[in-house]
Design a protein that fits this description.
The structure is a single chain. With 182 residues, this protein is of the alpha+beta class. It is 34% helix and 30% strand. The chain is built from 3 helices and 9 strands, in the order βααβββββββαβ. It has helices spanning 18-40, 44-68, 149-162, and strands at 7-10, 72-78, 84-89, 94-97, 102-111, 127-135, 138-141, 145-147, 167-173. The strands form 2 sheets. Strands 5, 6, 7, 8 and 9 form a 5-stranded mixed sheet that branches. Strands 1-2-3-4 form a 4-stranded antiparallel sheet. Strand 6 and strand 7 (138-141) form a beta hairpin. Residues 177-182 have low confidence and may be disordered.
Length: 182
């Protein structure tokens, strides 16, 4: 994540869900097509199992898409009068909020193991972080961002500056893999 004066958060993957969604639809269609070929070949049990698998896969992809499209990918500060924070969502929607309405800023940082034999892979303190904001009675969750410990401290300080009345809550978890945001 590049840190600028007006940037409070930026996710590693800021793209919408369009191409991913098309890949999942194509995979479910291919699985259903394979089930159709088995149906024509009088393999009833296997074809029904394949159709059920395609249905479960399509339902999972749809549920994940509905959950992910509500996440935000970028938060910036707009220094107009009055000062606002601008939240950019995965779906492309942008909303402005009063920084005084932010109640809680929660950052979960999951560290990666550091291998001194291969320092080019990850530096000490490297990991992924997820931001959760509670504001105006709603909770907003971000996609993950790659941060090391120094960048994490700078992000926390930026949030303390912009939202001084918000409760800062953060967890630093050691771990081997932290590619998913929960």
């Amino acid at each position: 994540m590049r840190l600028e004066d007006d940037l409070l958060w930026e996710a590693a993957d800021r793209n919408g869900w369009g191409l991913r969604w098309l890949r999942h639809v194509a995979a479910a269609a291919a699985l259903a097509g394979f089930g159709g070929l088995l149906w024509l070949g009088d393999e009833w049990f296997v074809s029904v199992a394949t159709f059920c698998g395609a249905s479960v896969y399509a339902a999972w992809a749809t549920a994940y898409w509905l959950r992910d499209r509500r996440r935000f990918v970028r938060v910036t500060v707009v220094d107009d009068v009055p000062r606002r924070i601008r939240v950019h969502r995965v779906s492309g929607r942008t909303t402005d909020h009063d920084p005084r309405m932010v109640n809680t800023v929660h950052i979960t940082h999951r560290g990666h193991d550091y291998d001194p034999d291969h320092p080019s892979l990850l530096g000490p303190g490297a990991g992924t972080a997820t931001l959760r904001l509670r504001m105006e009675g709603r909770q907003l969750t971000s996609r993950w961002a790659g941060l090391n410990s120094a960048e994490l401290d700078q992000v926390e300080q930026s949030w303390r500056t912009v939202c001084p009345k918000a409760a800062m809550d953060g967890r630093r978890l050691p771990g081997k893999f932290a590619g998913y945001s929960y």
